[in-house]
């Protein structure tokens, strides 16, 4: 079967995969928590070396390094659903508005945030400017101009995963000390969007770039037009759809599942559930994504056709909801359960 036939035979966003090891299994998960500090390692992150090995063994993987405009079509449909929903809910009662904001707005805006993640890697179009401006478009229903800032910090997360003082994805030490009980960890999950937005600005501040100003101008204009023509309930639908969708929402399990060290020594995990990956552009294929950030999310399942021996033996998740539950209620899990490494300067 040719590569083109394989590509065409894949579902639009997701292909279901069954790994040989279940990362939910308590028998292989950590039994002792990190009470005082992160897990420090002198070694490099695992993805660069695995990428080299896979390319040596399976050079045909390079055929997957190509733009994926079909995902842009999917994103445009999701944004359209958000716009139509906001218009229809402009005069809705509060119970109806809250229900649709969580169920529809939360799911769709989380999907839009993950679309921005894809676009930060320039994965949908051949030219960078098209990816960038489509990132602004995907950013519109979230109500907040986050695309350009996210891209700057996310590239550092990939280039220097876990590096102290660089990777803004890792919680601050005070988060590890304070969010220890189930109640506190529940609130930490609920307010994840606040921590992800403010942590880089506080601990890793950068001078504002012109792209960020353009991002704010585009999203700010959109927000003004929504408020002026449709009213505050439509704006509530957008803003709180983002808050609900990135907080205590089933899709938010990927924030924890991706890099929290549930199993000692493993710092990146994949999730092969169906619906989360469908709406999330296969962000659950996270080992695959870090190994090959140049492959669009829709094509990541094909790595299991080309190089199954590298992924199907790694422990993986099947439920983001269960990841959240385990993080909140397992006392050996905390914000300290992340792998960190020193900078090259030894800081």
Report the mean per-residue pLDDT as an integer. Answer: 93
Helix content: 40-55%
Distance between the termini: 51 Å
Shape: globular
Radius of gyration: 20 Å
Low-confidence stretches: 1-13
Derived structural class: mainly alpha
The major sheet is characterized as:
2 strands, parallel
Number of domains: 1
H and E order: HEHHHHHHHHHHHEHHHEHE
Q: How many beta-strand elements?
A: 4
Strand order of the largest sheet: 1-4
The portion of residues forming beta strands comes to under 5%
Specify the number of helices: 16
Overall description:
The protein is an all-alpha fold. It has one domain. The chain has 16 helices and 4 strands. The strands form 2 sheets. A two-stranded parallel ribbon has the order 1-4. A two-stranded parallel ribbon has the order 2-3. α4 packs antiparallel against α5. The N terminus is likely disordered.
